[in-house]
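Please go through this protein, sequence plus structure tokens, and consider how the sequence yields the tokens. Keep your notes short.
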Amino acid sequence: MLKAEHIKKTYNAGKKVALDDFSIHVPKGSIYGLLGPNGAGKTSFIRIINQITQADSGEIHINGQKLNPGHIKDIGYMPEERGLYKNMTVGDQILYFGELKGMKKSDALNEAKKWFEKLNIDQWWKKKLSELSKGMAQKIQFVVTVLHRPHLLILDEPFSGFDPVNANLIKDQIIDLKNNGTTIILSTHRMESVEEMCDYVALINNSKKIIDGRVFDVREKFKKNIFGITLSEVSNDHFENFRNKYEIFNLSNENNLVSFDLKNEESQNNVLLDLVQVGKVRSFDERIPSMNEVFINAVSNHS
């Protein structure tokens, strides 16, 4: 859906580098997580896609075509700094932004009704934005962003301002859009959302891409061959022999269950063969790092 090749962007006459040889490929119909610490270059890249600013060099293609003004109608962008008019009624804003994206007023109205019903906000149509809470205003911003059925949806911190119930509601709507063919770029600091929603991820730090790929593959890359194990009916003598052979930590013994973490570079089958001599194996799980752990480790290693 989107290919960015060798993007470079600088500010202050080249003194500040925002993006340095940045390239990503966003598959059609996927949710692609764009991650990085504040100031890494994420917003600069999003602004280039939306043609708010231009890259110094490099190219972006959408659906095989070089990025051009005609793509604006195919893109929905929900910025982190929201941009609605506080003294305009919700209904007027919805129709206004729909028409800005090239929709007929009647089409914008019909599409708005569908979204207002989905999000249970029918009663807000004649309210001014200034009368709504932050979370309510966020829902309106989301509707404005998706109203024209964009092929590419860019969401910058879409869950900001939502309570857990409404955050989950918006998450479900985003996944539903993806399942119906929309390609989504998601920029967020909520790593649990990345794990739950994203198919692919790229991590930017200090203007450079340092990781990209499928979320599962990225997490696998950072694993440290650590396993979590729980045993019952443990033989103390056999367990002592086991401890002498393996590196064990986080050991606990509660309710006749012995639990511990183990670092192992050998075959998992060999560990299991040794474990069955020690006791009854109740659980044996490889510790795959969370995206939050990946994020922290990757940024620390490339600072």
Q: What stands out?
A: The two ends are 31 Å apart (CA to CA).
